[in-house]
Amino acid sequence: MAKNKHGAEPNLKGTLVSVFGVGIIIIIMWFATYFLYVAR
């Protein structure tokens, strides 16, 4: 079990980085939309 968990760790780290990347893109899009709305 320990070997299997250790093997899945890099994949899990890559998934975490992907989730943070997508989240940051969504937050940037929300701020861009908000500032466009406020500047109108």
TrEMBL record:
<feature type="transmembrane region" description="Helical">
    <location>
        <begin position="16"/>
        <end position="37"/>
    </location>
</feature>
<protein>
    <submittedName>
        <fullName>Cytochrome C oxidase subunit II</fullName>
    </submittedName>
</protein>
<keyword id="KW-0472">Membrane</keyword>
<keyword id="KW-1133">Transmembrane helix</keyword>
<keyword id="KW-0812">Transmembrane</keyword>
